[in-house]
Specification:
This protein is mostly helical. The chain has 4 helices and 2 strands, in the order αββααα.
Length: 72
């Protein structure tokens, strides 16, 4: 087992794809996630995003606060 220190920290693909906005909030690009999750194209991944938005809404969260449309 590797010693735990900053030089040996292994990041998951999700951690490496994480981005920060100007205010320091974490976010992920759908286009990055579709590659990590091995979807062939965005049109197939869009269904996954819609289900995630529905789950967000069903949990009482504001969908617009968690999902932002983005331009390429």
């Amino acid at each position: 087992m590797l010693p735990s220190n900053e030089n040996n920290v292994r990041k998951s693909l999700f951690e490496m794809a994480m981005r920060l906005d100007n205010e320091g909030n974490e976010f992920w690009s759908a286009r990055d996630l579709l590659q990590i999750l091995e979807y062939a194209n965005y049109s197939k991944f869009k269904h996954v995003l819609l289900k995630a938005q529905m789950a967000c809404e069903n949990s009482g969260q504001d969908v617009d606060a968690h999902f932002f449309p983005a331009k390429k």
